[in-house]
């Protein structure tokens, strides 16, 4: 959900030659939460960009998932890409994202992060403020 974190992940995925996975996931989110009147247009766009033979940003999904998705897009609806989206999500979760967390790009992002004051450790931990006095003994 963090825009900066997502941008850094996309940058990492570009270097790994798998940026299309995140782009596909985002397009599926647009389908799911976008305007009802654009569903046919968005489904067609997703198919042309990511799933069609020779697509410029082709994503690698298994044959069963592809079969179900292709059958579903004959009557497009908001959730027609759910299986394919979940497949790509799991690929990123198990492979790309853990590599991103170990990358120099992510370490630099963390180093530049602004840490909210309430999460910083105090110099003298024994001098903590009382949160609320409890009315019960």
UniProtKB/TrEMBL annotation:
The record's keywords, sorted A to Z, are: Signal transduction inhibitor
- The segment(s) forming the RGS domain are 1-110
Q: Which GO terms describe its cellular component?
A: cytoplasm; neuron projection; plasma membrane
- InterPro entries under this entry? RGS, RGS6/7/9/11, RGS_sf, RGS_subdomain_2
Coiled coil ranges: none
Tell me which domain of life the UniProt entry assigns to the organism this sequence originates from. Answer: Eukaryota
Q: Does the keyword Coiled coil apply?
A: no
Q: Name one Pfam family in it.
A: RGS
Q: Which GO biological-process labels does this protein carry?
A: negative regulation of signal transduction; regulation of G protein-coupled receptor signaling pathway
The terms under GO molecular function for this entry are: GTPase activator activity
Please give the SMART domains that the UniProt record associates with this protein.
RGS
Name this protein carries in UniProt:
RGS11 protein
Per the UniProt entry, what species is this protein from, by scientific name? Pampusana beccarii
């Amino acid at each position: 959900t963090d825009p900066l974190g997502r941008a850094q992940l996309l940058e990492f995925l570009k270097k790994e030659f798998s940026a299309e996975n995140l782009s596909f996931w985002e397009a599926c989110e647009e389908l799911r939460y976008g305007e009802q009147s654009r569903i046919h247009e968005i489904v067609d766009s997703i198919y042309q960009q990511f799933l069609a033979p020779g697509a410029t940003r082709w994503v690698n999904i298994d044959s069963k998932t592809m079969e179900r998705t292709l059958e579903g897009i004959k009557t497009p609806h908001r959730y027609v890409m759910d299986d394919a989206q979940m497949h790509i999500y799991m690929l990123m979760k198990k492979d790309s994202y853990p590599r991103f967390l170990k990358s120099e790009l992510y370490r630099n992002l963390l180093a530049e992060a602004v840490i909210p004051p309430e999460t910083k450790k105090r110099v003298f931990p024994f001098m903590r403020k009382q949160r609320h006095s409890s009315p019960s003994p």
